[in-house]
From TrEMBL:
<feature type="transmembrane region" description="Helical">
    <location>
        <begin position="282"/>
        <end position="303"/>
    </location>
</feature>
<comment type="similarity">
    <text>Belongs to the binding-protein-dependent transport system permease family.</text>
</comment>
<keyword id="KW-0812">Transmembrane</keyword>
<dbReference type="InterPro" id="IPR025966">
    <property type="entry name" value="OppC_N"/>
</dbReference>
<keyword id="KW-1003">Cell membrane</keyword>
<dbReference type="InterPro" id="IPR050366">
    <property type="entry name" value="BP-dependent_transpt_permease"/>
</dbReference>
<dbReference type="Pfam" id="PF12911">
    <property type="entry name" value="OppC_N"/>
</dbReference>
<feature type="region of interest" description="Disordered">
    <location>
        <begin position="1"/>
        <end position="29"/>
    </location>
</feature>
<keyword id="KW-1133">Transmembrane helix</keyword>
<feature type="transmembrane region" description="Helical">
    <location>
        <begin position="224"/>
        <end position="244"/>
    </location>
</feature>
<dbReference type="InterPro" id="IPR000515">
    <property type="entry name" value="MetI-like"/>
</dbReference>
<dbReference type="Pfam" id="PF00528">
    <property type="entry name" value="BPD_transp_1"/>
</dbReference>
<keyword id="KW-0813">Transport</keyword>
<feature type="transmembrane region" description="Helical">
    <location>
        <begin position="114"/>
        <end position="140"/>
    </location>
</feature>
<feature type="domain" description="ABC transmembrane type-1">
    <location>
        <begin position="110"/>
        <end position="300"/>
    </location>
</feature>
<feature type="transmembrane region" description="Helical">
    <location>
        <begin position="152"/>
        <end position="169"/>
    </location>
</feature>
<keyword id="KW-0472">Membrane</keyword>
Length: 312
């Protein structure tokens, strides 16, 4: 006799067929799994909102203010503190010692600081990642040589190396500061990449690709690289905030960006002598700088938690 089923009962083959049609049996990729974890992380959303604001501010400063950051009025605005009349004029944070709008300079200063941080991060990720991949994959004397070079550069602190190199430039711009920081900032990425490649090159899919005749370039960039990007992305995201703060430190010491470039570090350096009389001149750009660095660190922590299954 045929097996009877209840009106609302579903047999096993029907359930399997329904699951296959809906696509629920497909395993999620690493990126999909990480995005699912990120969507439920308050760290990701808090840092993401802050970064979107700062990035839009850097890309389109005129959306936030139409005041020229270099326009000066010593007679009427010298170290004027924030007040309601200035608030309604769009100058929310008062004026500095040159009679310039602190708010306008803070908004426009985001561009130089963030560009330096992003460009340095891209440079060190590409160069350090390539060094780490070659050292980890080939091993032997290639690994020994590249590792010793990495160790030599590791012995030079980033700030000290940047100070020394930038002294050679009489006119320092965003690109010279980027070069100075990238020259001494790639070593951590190289070490992380080297360790990840050493682990992945022993995997079965790499052995299979090599047995099928895949070349070194194809194995490195098509098979190994996608599987080692996770830890590199985490390190690069956290380091980006550090590069922004290092640029501000160099500008504060007078070795980084210089006038007429508008940046947070330049404004903090100029405001140090006015801290007692007008603390707002220093506190406003310093607060924006701190929030930007904090946002990148929080984003890096959120990405690390999403990509590392041991931390879930």
């Amino acid at each position: 006799m045929p097996e009877k089923t209840l009106p609302h009962e579903t047999t096993v083959p029907e359930a399997v067929s329904t699951a296959m049609k809906s696509g629920s049996n497909k395993p999620r990729s690493l990126g999909q799994d990480a995005w699912r974890e990120l969507r439920g992380s308050w760290l990701f959303w808090a840092s993401g909102v802050l970064l979107v604001i700062f990035i839009v501010m850097a890309a389109f400063p005129t959306l936030f203010t139409d005041v020229d950051p270099r326009q000066a009025d010593l007679r009427g605005h010298y170290l004027a503190p924030p007040n309601w009349s200035h608030f309604f004029q769009g100058d929310w944070f008062g004026y500095n010692g040159q009679g310039q709008s602190v708010y306008a300079r803070t908004v426009h200063g985001a561009r130089a600081s963030i560009i330096v941080g992003v460009c340095v991060t891209i440079a060190v990720t590409v160069f350090g990642g390539l060094v780490g991949m070659l050292a980890g994959y080939f091993g032997g004397w290639v690994d020994g040589l590249l590792s010793r070079i990495t160790d030599i550069f590791f012995g030079i602190p980033l700030l000290l190396g940047g100070l020394t190199l930038l002294q050679a430039f009489t006119h320092r711009t965003v690109w010279t500061v980027t070069l100075g920081l990238a020259t001494f900032g790639w070593m951590q990425i190289a070490r992380v990449m080297r360790g990840a490649v050493i682990t992945q090159k022993q995997a079965d899919f790499v052995t299979a690709a090599r047995a099928l005749g895949a070349g070194t370039g194809r194995i490195l960039f098509r098979h190994i690289l996608p599987n080692v990007l996770g830890p590199v992305i985490v390190v690069a995201t956290i380091a980006l905030g550090g590069y922004i703060s290092t640029e501000a430190t160099l500008s504060y010491l007078g070795i980084g960006l210089q006038d007429p470039v508008v940046s947070w570090g330049v404004d903090i350096s100029a405001a140090q002598s006015q801290l007692r009389d007008a603390p707002h001149v220093l506190l406003v750009p310093a607060t924006f700088l701190s929030l930007t660095v904090l946002a990148f660190i929080l984003l890096g922590d959120a990405v690390r938690d999403a990509l590392d299954p041991k931390l879930r």
